[in-house]
Structure formats: C-alpha cells, structure tokens
C-alpha cells in the first residue's frame, strides 16, 4: 500500500499507455465481444476519438512517431530497431523527443515494457523499469514505486505492453492442422500471475470483412481477444494504483496502440485496419467528460499534445519551449560528431499539432487530411507505400508495385493466411483474393466515405480521373512538406 504520497504529489502527471498491434476492438468502440471494462470506463470519463490513425503500421517506425511528433520518414526510423534490421532515428531528433522534452519541462520520466526505438540517447528516459511485457497487471505493480515516489516533480510514465502482438508459439491443443498463434497467451489455457484470463469461443468472435471467415481466422481472433483482455486488467490495476495514491485526478492518461491488429490486411499495410487505432484521452482537468470525438487525429499529434499538457509547448513555433539545440547537444560528443545526424529543417518542429484544446469540444475539427508513410517493417520487407486521406477519399501509392508484397515473418506463417494461400491465389481473402493481396496496382483510390473496407479501387475508372489527379497532387504536396525523400519517385517511376 502506498503512503501519504498525495500530499506531495505534483499536478499534471502523464501516463502514456501503448499496446502492441491492437485495433479499436474495445467495448467503447462498439465491439460486443471484447472484454474491456477499464478502457470503457476511461472513455466514459474522458474523450474517445473515433477517427484516430497511426501513420505507419510497423512497430519501431510507429513508436518513433509516437515519441517524436514526426512521420517515420522524417525521424529516420524507417523500420525495426532490433537484431539485424538496425534502423534508428536521427541523432538531431533529440530536440523534439518526447521524454527529453518533458524532462526539460521538469518531469521525471520512466518507461516500462516494449521500447523498440533507437538511439537510446535520443529517446532517453530517466528510468527503465523491468517487467514482463505480456503481463500488464505485473507491469502496473512494478510501476507503483515510480508513480508514488516522494518527489515534487510531475511524472511521465511510458507504459508499453507486448500484448496483443503475435508470439509465444501456437496452440497445440487446437484440432486444426494449421494451429493458431497464441498471441502471447500461455499454452493449455494457463494464466499469468495476477491475471484472470478470459477465454473466447472462436464461434463467437466477430470476423471483420477484411478477413476471410475461416476456422483458422476465428481461432486466431479468439487468441487475440484473450490477449487484449489481459491488457485491460493491467490498465485497471494501473488506474487503481493511481486512485489509491490520490494521483488519479492529477494524471492525464492516454491509451492507444502502435497500429492495427497483426493479421494480413492490417499490420504492415496502409489499409484502414492497419492504420486505425484506439485513442482514449482522460484529462482530469477537462470539465466535459464522456466525449465521443470524430475529428481526424494522427499519431504525429501525440507528442505535441503531451508536451502541451505539460505546459512545455511553444504553440507558435510548434516545438518545446525549452529548446535543446541539437548541434550544441552533440558538439562535445565525439561519437556523434562525424555522424549524419539528420536534416535540420525537418527536425526543428513537430509535424503534428496538439489536440489538448479540442478535448472537450466534440464539434471541433483537427486535420482535414492525413498522411501515411510506410517503407520497411523488417529489413527484407522493402515496399514503400504512401497514402493520403480525408473524410471522403483515400489514395494509396504503392511505390514498389512491380514487386510482390513482402510479408512480416509472423504474418507469413499465420494460420489465417496460410490456410488461404495454400488453397490458391484465387482464394478469398476478405476484401480481395490471395493473389490480389500479394500483387498490387500502382494506385488505389477508394471512396472511403461509402467504401470503408476499401473493396472497390476506382483509380483506373475514367469517371474518377479528376479525383485521382487531385489526390495525387495532394499526396505529393504533403510528402514535400514533411521531408519525404521518396517524393523523388514521382519523377522517374
């Protein structure tokens, strides 16, 4: 139990809760099967964004966006940070980095769970708390000492689970020839310490239209929902710790995911299931609660929003008030002196903007258009894609369209994919066929307002030639404005 920490606890604390490969499959988003009472309660007492989008559906790349306020083509984190992939953000991102900006605003900072970005000196936290990233309840318990420390400074906790990412082997008890991935769940219906596992019947889970309704898909979705339910229990425990310590009414809680669920058609694509994410913001200082907000918001908005909440955002310059000049920071560090530290102009201001002013204003707009940018996941997965969307139309540019679409290693072996791939290239795969998923056209144009699952590509339709030209021009403009070097492909491809 905590002591009388509330007497000295600072105001305007921040908890940033990030899940791994989770779509808006929560009760508060209308999912009738999901078991998510903690997230639902948070939404009922805060703001739920219905049109929140990642900028890329790849783990490291997306996390660099979450922690910088820039698109991943601007951070330099084009793909995975770990193992042989070895992507890393630009050194000069040090000026905009979320944990560093908050530290300069007087915050003590800590992270627990999945980190998955580099370099550490750019995305530096005061403290790294060890914990089992598959057990959010245990992660919450491990965070208690940091949250309740006898310290007058406000805190920033970056809380990042590995659930519901694929992993942990396959369910060998399944009757299927192609066994479902466990999504981090324990084999044989086991449980993590402190967790009451929730099990789902494959017959009961909803199959989204972009996936094939097969026994393999249903079995994997059942595992996915179980993993997601475990996350919610961790969120519940974290909220309980804050309440016990008298900190809940002094702490902003932001809940989101790095991108959509890990099924082919979601993760590693710029289709809606890959980019659409949950975003719940509970601001204790906001008068109006239970707001359902349909403004278009992006992951590039999160860092400037959190810095704004902390009182550290220069809104005119759209960067931290306490600015750390990158050239000065690296001047006396020999290991960085000879490095290409990144394009200074791109790294001088956030590309997103704060949504703090609109939290209690459900009619307020935020972005008119959103940009998505994907180049790598794993190193062997070169397949640059760019997308631009507004409320009516969405254009996808498959820059590497002559190539067959490359698969993330975990998605290639997934039973939900292999069951259809082994059947034939003409086999159904939700919105398309197996062959249509693998070999894509140069452009995809969707009337997203009437075709939310992107089933009818209008790019080759002469009736929509003017619309195609308009969104090509808009996409190019947004690439140029955000420092995207792939814009050169317009000239020679």
Structural features, described:
- The protein has 493 residues and is α/β, with parallel strands linked by helices.
- It has one domain: Alkaline Phosphatase, subunit A (3-Layer(aba) Sandwich), CATH 3.40.720.
- It has 15 helices and 16 strands.
- The chain has helices at 37-44, 59-66, 72-75, 98-104, 136-147, 215-244, 272-275, 302-309, 326-330, 334-337, 409-412, 415-421, 434-438, 465-481, 489-492, and strands spanning 13-19, 47-53, 108-113, 127-129, 155-160, 251-257, 276-282, 291-298, 313-314, 319-320, 370-374, 385-389, 394-398, 428-429, 432-433, 443-446.
- The strands form 4 sheets. An 8-stranded mixed β-sheet has the order 4-3-5-1-6-7-2-8, with helices on both faces.
- It starts with 12 loop residues before the first strand and ends with a helix.
- The relative contact order is 0.17.
Feature tags:
single chain, 16% strand, eight-stranded mixed sheet, Alkaline Phosphatase, subunit A, 493 residues, alpha/beta, disordered N terminus
Layout of strands and helices, then pairs:
Layout: E1 13-19, H1 37-44, E2 47-53, H2 59-66, H3 72-75, H4 98-104, E3 108-113, E4 127-129, H5 136-147, E5 155-160, H6 215-244, E6 251-257, H7 272-275, E7 276-282, E8 291-298, H8 302-309, E9 313-314, E10 319-320, H9 326-330, H10 334-337, E11 370-374, E12 385-389, E13 394-398, H11 409-412, H12 415-421, E14 428-429, E15 432-433, H13 434-438, E16 443-446, H14 465-481, H15 489-492
Helix pairs in contact: 5-6, 6-12
């Amino acid at each position: 139990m905590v002591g009388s920490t509330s007497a000295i606890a600072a105001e305007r604390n921040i908890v940033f809760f990030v899940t791994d490969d989770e779509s808006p499959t929560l009760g508060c988003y209308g999912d009738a099967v999901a078991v998510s009472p903690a997230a639902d309660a948070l939404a009922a007492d805060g703001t739920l964004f219905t049109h929140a989008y990642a900028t890329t559906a790849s783990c490291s790349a997306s996390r660099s966006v979450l922690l910088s306020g820039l698109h991943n083509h601007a951070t330099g984190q084009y793909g995975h940070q770990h193992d042989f992939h070895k992507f890393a953000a630009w050194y000069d991102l040090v000026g905009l980095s979320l944990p560093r900006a908050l530290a300069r605003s007087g915050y003590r900072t800590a992270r627990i769970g999945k980190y998955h970005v580099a370099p550490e000196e750019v995305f530096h936290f005061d403290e790294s708390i060890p914990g089992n990233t598959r057990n959010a309840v245990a992660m919450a318990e491990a965070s208690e000492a940091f949250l309740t420390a006898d310290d007058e400074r406000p805190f920033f906790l970056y809380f990042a689970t590995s659930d519901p990412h694929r992993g942990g082997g396959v369910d060998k008890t399944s009757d299927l020839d192609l066994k479902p991935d466990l999504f981090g769940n324990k084999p044989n219906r086991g449980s993590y310490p402190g967790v009451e596992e929730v099990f789902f019947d494959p017959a009961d889970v909803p199959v989204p239209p972009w996936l094939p309704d097969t026994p393999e898909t249903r079995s994997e979705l059942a595992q996915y929902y179980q993993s997601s339910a475990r996350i919610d229990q961790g969120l519940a425990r974290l909220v309980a710790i804050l309440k016990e310590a008298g900190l809940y009414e002094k702490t902003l809680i932001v809940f989101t995911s790095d991108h959509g669920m890990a099924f082919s058609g979601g993760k590693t694509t710029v289709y809606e299931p890959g980019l659409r994410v949950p975003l719940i913001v509970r601001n204790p200082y906001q008068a109006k609660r239970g707001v359902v907000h349909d403004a278009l918001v992006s992951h590039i908005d999160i860092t400037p929003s959190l810095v704004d909440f902390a009182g550290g955002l220069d809104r005119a310059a759209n960067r931290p008030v306490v600015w750390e000049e990158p050239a000065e920071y690296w001047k006396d560090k020999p290991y960085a002196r000879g490095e290409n530290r990144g394009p200074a102009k791109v790294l001088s201001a956030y590309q997103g903007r704060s949504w703090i002013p609109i939290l209690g204003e459900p009619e307020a707009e935020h972005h008119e258009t959103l940009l998505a940018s994907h180049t790598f996941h794993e190193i062997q997965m070169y397949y640059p894609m760019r997308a631009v969307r507004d409320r009516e139309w969405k254009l996808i540019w498959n820059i590497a369209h002559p190539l067959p679409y490359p698969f993330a290693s975990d998605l290639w072996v997934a039973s939900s994919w292999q069951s259809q791939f082994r059947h034939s290239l003409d086999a159904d795969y939700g919105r398309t066929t197996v062959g249509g998923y693998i070999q894509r056209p140069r452009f995809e144009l969707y009337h997203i307002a009437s075709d939310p699952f992107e089933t009818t590509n209008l790019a080759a339709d002469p009736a929509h030639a003017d619309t195609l030209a308009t969104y090509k021009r808009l996409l190019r403009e947004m690439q140029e404005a955000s420092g995207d070097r792939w814009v050169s492909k317009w000239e020679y491809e």
